[in-house]
Amino acid sequence: MTPHAVEFGGQRVPMARLERVRHILEADPAHRVHIVSFPKSGRTWCRVMLSRYKQRLFGIPEFHLYLHRLYSAGPKPAPQILFSHGAGNYPTNRKEARWYYLRKALGWEMDTVAKMDISHCKGAKVVFVVRDPRDVMLSYYHHRSKRLPSYRFPGSSSEFLRDRHFGIGHLVAFMNFLARQSVHFEHIFMFYEDMRRDPYTEMEKLLRFGGSFMDEEALRDCIQYGSFENMRNMELTGRYGSELTQQTAGDPNSFKVRKGIVGGYRTELSKSDATYLDEEIQSKLDLFYERYLIPAEMSD
Protein backbone atom coordinates (compact mmCIF):
# COMPACT_ATOMS: atom_id res chain seq x y z
CA MET A 1 0.00 0.00 0.00
CA THR A 2 1.41 3.40 -1.04
CA PRO A 3 1.93 5.77 1.95
CA HIS A 4 0.40 9.26 2.03
CA ALA A 5 3.79 10.85 2.71
CA VAL A 6 7.47 9.87 2.73
CA GLU A 7 10.62 11.09 4.48
CA PHE A 8 12.61 13.19 2.04
CA GLY A 9 15.32 15.76 2.72
CA GLY A 10 14.69 15.55 6.46
CA GLN A 11 10.97 16.28 6.23
CA ARG A 12 7.68 14.55 5.50
CA VAL A 13 6.71 15.12 1.88
CA PRO A 14 3.16 14.32 0.68
CA MET A 15 3.02 11.70 -2.04
CA ALA A 16 0.82 14.11 -4.01
CA ARG A 17 3.86 16.38 -4.41
CA LEU A 18 6.01 13.51 -5.62
CA GLU A 19 3.31 12.64 -8.13
CA ARG A 20 3.70 16.17 -9.53
CA VAL A 21 7.50 16.11 -9.51
CA ARG A 22 7.63 15.79 -13.31
CA HIS A 23 6.20 19.33 -13.51
CA ILE A 24 8.41 20.93 -10.85
CA LEU A 25 11.42 22.96 -11.98
CA GLU A 26 13.99 24.07 -9.43
CA ALA A 27 14.39 27.83 -9.78
CA ASP A 28 18.14 27.90 -9.10
CA PRO A 29 20.06 26.35 -12.04
CA ALA A 30 22.85 25.46 -9.60
CA HIS A 31 20.45 22.80 -8.24
CA ARG A 32 20.02 21.23 -11.68
CA VAL A 33 21.90 18.88 -13.98
CA HIS A 34 20.79 18.79 -17.60
CA ILE A 35 21.31 15.64 -19.64
CA VAL A 36 21.24 16.52 -23.34
CA SER A 37 21.14 13.93 -26.11
CA PHE A 38 19.81 13.15 -29.55
CA PRO A 39 16.84 10.73 -29.51
CA LYS A 40 17.78 7.04 -29.16
CA SER A 41 21.15 7.70 -27.55
CA GLY A 42 20.42 6.07 -24.17
CA ARG A 43 18.18 8.70 -22.58
CA THR A 44 15.47 6.31 -21.33
CA TRP A 45 18.09 3.94 -19.94
CA CYS A 46 19.67 6.82 -17.96
CA ARG A 47 16.25 7.96 -16.73
CA VAL A 48 15.39 4.50 -15.44
CA MET A 49 18.69 4.11 -13.58
CA LEU A 50 18.69 7.62 -12.11
CA SER A 51 15.07 7.38 -10.96
CA ARG A 52 15.79 4.02 -9.36
CA TYR A 53 18.89 5.46 -7.67
CA LYS A 54 16.89 8.25 -6.01
CA GLN A 55 14.11 5.85 -5.13
CA ARG A 56 16.59 3.65 -3.25
CA LEU A 57 18.54 6.58 -1.82
CA PHE A 58 15.48 8.13 -0.21
CA GLY A 59 13.32 5.05 0.37
CA ILE A 60 10.58 6.30 -1.96
CA PRO A 61 7.94 3.93 -3.38
CA GLU A 62 8.40 2.91 -7.01
CA PHE A 63 5.61 4.59 -8.95
CA HIS A 64 6.96 6.48 -11.98
CA LEU A 65 10.11 7.25 -13.95
CA TYR A 66 10.46 10.92 -12.98
CA LEU A 67 12.09 10.57 -9.57
CA HIS A 68 15.34 11.81 -11.12
CA ARG A 69 13.74 15.27 -10.94
CA LEU A 70 13.79 15.26 -7.12
CA TYR A 71 16.16 17.79 -5.53
CA SER A 72 17.54 17.41 -2.03
CA ALA A 73 19.92 19.63 -0.07
CA GLY A 74 19.63 17.53 3.09
CA PRO A 75 22.04 14.98 4.55
CA LYS A 76 21.92 13.15 1.20
CA PRO A 77 22.31 15.95 -1.36
CA ALA A 78 21.05 15.26 -4.86
CA PRO A 79 20.50 17.69 -7.76
CA GLN A 80 17.41 17.80 -9.91
CA ILE A 81 18.25 15.93 -13.11
CA LEU A 82 16.46 17.02 -16.29
CA PHE A 83 16.49 15.47 -19.75
CA SER A 84 16.17 17.21 -23.11
CA HIS A 85 17.02 16.67 -26.76
CA GLY A 86 17.50 20.31 -27.68
CA ALA A 87 17.57 19.39 -31.36
CA GLY A 88 14.26 20.82 -32.66
CA ASN A 89 14.49 18.07 -35.19
CA TYR A 90 11.12 16.56 -35.97
CA PRO A 91 7.38 17.20 -36.26
CA THR A 92 5.65 15.95 -33.16
CA ASN A 93 2.06 16.13 -34.36
CA ARG A 94 -0.01 15.93 -37.52
CA LYS A 95 -0.17 19.70 -38.05
CA GLU A 96 3.62 20.02 -37.92
CA ALA A 97 3.91 16.99 -40.17
CA ARG A 98 1.69 18.62 -42.82
CA TRP A 99 3.91 21.73 -42.81
CA TYR A 100 6.98 19.51 -43.04
CA TYR A 101 5.68 17.75 -46.15
CA LEU A 102 4.51 21.01 -47.70
CA ARG A 103 7.97 22.53 -47.33
CA LYS A 104 9.51 19.34 -48.66
CA ALA A 105 7.18 19.28 -51.71
CA LEU A 106 7.95 22.93 -52.50
CA GLY A 107 11.67 22.30 -52.18
CA TRP A 108 12.10 24.82 -49.36
CA GLU A 109 15.32 24.51 -47.40
CA MET A 110 14.63 23.45 -43.81
CA ASP A 111 17.23 25.02 -41.53
CA THR A 112 16.91 22.57 -38.66
CA VAL A 113 20.34 23.57 -37.35
CA ALA A 114 18.94 27.01 -36.50
CA LYS A 115 16.44 25.34 -34.17
CA MET A 116 19.11 23.65 -32.06
CA ASP A 117 19.16 25.28 -28.65
CA ILE A 118 20.51 24.39 -25.21
CA SER A 119 20.32 27.87 -23.71
CA HIS A 120 17.94 26.48 -21.07
CA CYS A 121 20.99 24.77 -19.53
CA LYS A 122 22.69 28.07 -18.68
CA GLY A 123 24.05 28.13 -15.13
CA ALA A 124 23.60 24.38 -14.63
CA LYS A 125 25.92 21.43 -15.06
CA VAL A 126 25.43 19.61 -18.35
CA VAL A 127 25.95 15.98 -19.33
CA PHE A 128 26.08 15.30 -23.06
CA VAL A 129 25.14 11.69 -23.89
CA VAL A 130 26.15 10.53 -27.37
CA ARG A 131 26.14 7.27 -29.29
CA ASP A 132 27.53 5.92 -32.56
CA PRO A 133 25.49 7.82 -35.19
CA ARG A 134 24.97 4.64 -37.21
CA ASP A 135 23.22 2.87 -34.35
CA VAL A 136 21.28 6.02 -33.50
CA MET A 137 19.94 6.33 -37.04
CA LEU A 138 18.72 2.73 -37.20
CA SER A 139 17.03 2.90 -33.80
CA TYR A 140 15.62 6.34 -34.59
CA TYR A 141 14.11 5.05 -37.84
CA HIS A 142 12.26 2.29 -35.99
CA HIS A 143 11.16 4.80 -33.34
CA ARG A 144 9.81 7.33 -35.84
CA SER A 145 8.21 4.76 -38.15
CA LYS A 146 6.70 2.35 -35.61
CA ARG A 147 6.23 4.00 -32.20
CA LEU A 148 4.97 7.57 -32.32
CA PRO A 149 1.17 7.87 -32.40
CA SER A 150 1.18 11.52 -33.54
CA TYR A 151 3.42 11.23 -36.59
CA ARG A 152 5.20 8.25 -38.16
CA PHE A 153 7.73 8.41 -40.97
CA PRO A 154 6.11 6.61 -43.93
CA GLY A 155 9.19 5.84 -46.01
CA SER A 156 11.89 3.17 -46.01
CA SER A 157 14.99 3.14 -43.83
CA SER A 158 17.07 4.19 -46.88
CA GLU A 159 14.84 7.23 -47.37
CA PHE A 160 14.98 8.04 -43.68
CA LEU A 161 18.79 8.02 -43.55
CA ARG A 162 18.92 10.48 -46.45
CA ASP A 163 16.03 12.71 -45.38
CA ARG A 164 17.12 16.33 -44.90
CA HIS A 165 15.00 16.73 -41.79
CA PHE A 166 15.42 13.37 -40.06
CA GLY A 167 18.52 11.79 -41.57
CA ILE A 168 22.18 11.44 -40.80
CA GLY A 169 22.93 15.02 -41.90
CA HIS A 170 20.83 16.42 -39.07
CA LEU A 171 22.28 14.06 -36.48
CA VAL A 172 25.85 14.93 -37.47
CA ALA A 173 24.99 18.65 -37.37
CA PHE A 174 23.58 18.22 -33.86
CA MET A 175 26.61 16.32 -32.58
CA ASN A 176 28.88 19.01 -34.05
CA PHE A 177 26.68 21.64 -32.38
CA LEU A 178 27.17 19.96 -28.99
CA ALA A 179 30.94 19.80 -29.47
CA ARG A 180 31.03 23.56 -30.19
CA GLN A 181 28.58 24.57 -27.46
CA SER A 182 30.08 22.41 -24.71
CA VAL A 183 32.85 24.95 -23.99
CA HIS A 184 30.19 27.36 -22.65
CA PHE A 185 29.07 24.96 -19.90
CA GLU A 186 30.47 23.03 -16.99
CA HIS A 187 30.08 19.65 -18.61
CA ILE A 188 31.08 16.06 -19.21
CA PHE A 189 30.49 13.78 -22.18
CA MET A 190 29.19 10.26 -21.70
CA PHE A 191 29.33 7.72 -24.50
CA TYR A 192 26.69 5.02 -24.85
CA GLU A 193 29.31 2.42 -25.76
CA ASP A 194 31.23 3.11 -22.52
CA MET A 195 27.99 2.83 -20.57
CA ARG A 196 27.28 -0.56 -22.10
CA ARG A 197 30.80 -1.77 -21.33
CA ASP A 198 31.02 -0.46 -17.74
CA PRO A 199 27.74 1.06 -16.50
CA TYR A 200 28.90 1.25 -12.88
CA THR A 201 31.88 3.48 -13.65
CA GLU A 202 29.92 5.71 -16.02
CA MET A 203 26.96 6.18 -13.69
CA GLU A 204 29.30 6.87 -10.78
CA LYS A 205 31.00 9.54 -12.92
CA LEU A 206 27.63 11.13 -13.68
CA LEU A 207 26.50 11.15 -10.05
CA ARG A 208 29.77 12.55 -8.73
CA PHE A 209 29.83 15.23 -11.42
CA GLY A 210 26.32 16.30 -10.43
CA GLY A 211 27.18 16.42 -6.74
CA SER A 212 24.92 13.55 -5.68
CA PHE A 213 25.35 11.69 -2.41
CA MET A 214 27.12 8.41 -3.23
CA ASP A 215 25.56 5.15 -2.08
CA GLU A 216 27.31 2.09 -3.51
CA GLU A 217 24.44 -0.29 -2.77
CA ALA A 218 21.88 2.00 -4.42
CA LEU A 219 24.19 2.46 -7.41
CA ARG A 220 24.61 -1.27 -7.96
CA ASP A 221 20.88 -1.79 -7.58
CA CYS A 222 20.02 0.92 -10.12
CA ILE A 223 22.33 -0.65 -12.68
CA GLN A 224 20.71 -4.04 -12.19
CA TYR A 225 17.29 -2.41 -12.38
CA GLY A 226 18.29 -0.77 -15.67
CA SER A 227 19.42 -4.03 -17.28
CA PHE A 228 18.07 -4.72 -20.75
CA GLU A 229 16.16 -7.76 -19.49
CA ASN A 230 14.41 -5.84 -16.70
CA MET A 231 13.53 -2.86 -18.88
CA ARG A 232 12.12 -5.14 -21.56
CA ASN A 233 10.05 -6.88 -18.88
CA MET A 234 8.73 -3.47 -17.72
CA GLU A 235 7.64 -2.79 -21.27
CA LEU A 236 6.03 -6.20 -21.76
CA THR A 237 4.04 -5.89 -18.54
CA GLY A 238 3.12 -2.24 -19.10
CA ARG A 239 4.30 -1.32 -15.61
CA TYR A 240 4.77 2.33 -16.51
CA GLY A 241 1.98 2.72 -19.04
CA SER A 242 2.91 4.83 -22.06
CA GLU A 243 6.38 5.48 -20.64
CA LEU A 244 7.49 1.98 -21.63
CA THR A 245 5.00 0.22 -23.89
CA GLN A 246 5.29 -1.87 -27.04
CA GLN A 247 3.27 -0.10 -29.73
CA THR A 248 2.52 -3.00 -32.11
CA ALA A 249 1.97 -6.54 -30.88
CA GLY A 250 4.20 -8.99 -32.67
CA ASP A 251 6.63 -6.34 -33.93
CA PRO A 252 9.84 -6.38 -31.85
CA ASN A 253 10.97 -3.14 -33.51
CA SER A 254 8.05 -1.25 -31.93
CA PHE A 255 9.52 -1.67 -28.44
CA LYS A 256 10.94 1.40 -26.72
CA VAL A 257 13.70 -0.89 -25.44
CA ARG A 258 14.63 -2.54 -28.73
CA LYS A 259 18.06 -4.22 -28.75
CA GLY A 260 20.71 -1.96 -27.22
CA ILE A 261 23.48 -3.59 -29.24
CA VAL A 262 26.65 -1.71 -30.13
CA GLY A 263 27.10 -1.98 -33.90
CA GLY A 264 23.64 -3.52 -34.36
CA TYR A 265 23.07 -1.50 -37.53
CA ARG A 266 25.34 -3.97 -39.37
CA THR A 267 22.74 -6.73 -39.23
CA GLU A 268 19.78 -4.61 -40.41
CA LEU A 269 21.01 -2.03 -42.91
CA SER A 270 22.00 -2.84 -46.47
CA LYS A 271 25.65 -2.58 -47.40
CA SER A 272 24.98 0.52 -49.52
CA ASP A 273 23.16 2.24 -46.64
CA ALA A 274 25.92 1.37 -44.15
CA THR A 275 28.52 2.69 -46.61
CA TYR A 276 26.52 5.90 -47.03
CA LEU A 277 26.47 6.45 -43.27
CA ASP A 278 30.21 5.77 -43.03
CA GLU A 279 30.97 8.31 -45.74
CA GLU A 280 28.75 11.02 -44.23
CA ILE A 281 30.25 10.53 -40.78
CA GLN A 282 33.85 10.42 -41.94
CA SER A 283 33.47 13.55 -44.07
CA LYS A 284 31.31 15.72 -41.80
CA LEU A 285 31.54 14.67 -38.15
CA ASP A 286 33.68 16.83 -35.86
CA LEU A 287 37.06 15.29 -35.01
CA PHE A 288 36.07 15.54 -31.35
CA TYR A 289 34.16 12.30 -32.01
CA GLU A 290 37.20 10.52 -33.42
CA ARG A 291 36.02 7.21 -31.98
CA TYR A 292 33.08 7.21 -34.42
CA LEU A 293 35.03 7.96 -37.58
CA ILE A 294 35.85 4.26 -37.78
CA PRO A 295 32.86 1.91 -37.34
CA ALA A 296 32.81 0.09 -34.00
CA GLU A 297 32.97 -3.68 -33.80
CA MET A 298 29.62 -5.23 -33.10
CA SER A 299 29.04 -6.35 -29.52
CA ASP A 300 26.13 -7.22 -27.26
Question: Notable features of this structure?
Answer:
6 strands, alpha/beta, 300 residues, 10% strand, Rossmann fold
Describe this structure in words.
This protein is α/β, with parallel strands linked by helices. The chain has a single domain (5-292), classed as 3-Layer(aba) Sandwich (Rossmann fold), CATH 3.40.50. The protein is built from eleven helices and six strands. The protein has a four-stranded parallel β-sheet with strand order 4-3-5-6. A two-stranded antiparallel sheet has the order 1-2. Strand 3, helix 2 (43-58) and strand 4 form a beta-alpha-beta unit. Helix 2 crosses helix 9 (216-225) and helix 6 (168-181) packs parallel to helix 11 (271-284). The radius of gyration is 20 Å and the shape is globular. The model is unreliable at 251-256 (pLDDT under 50).
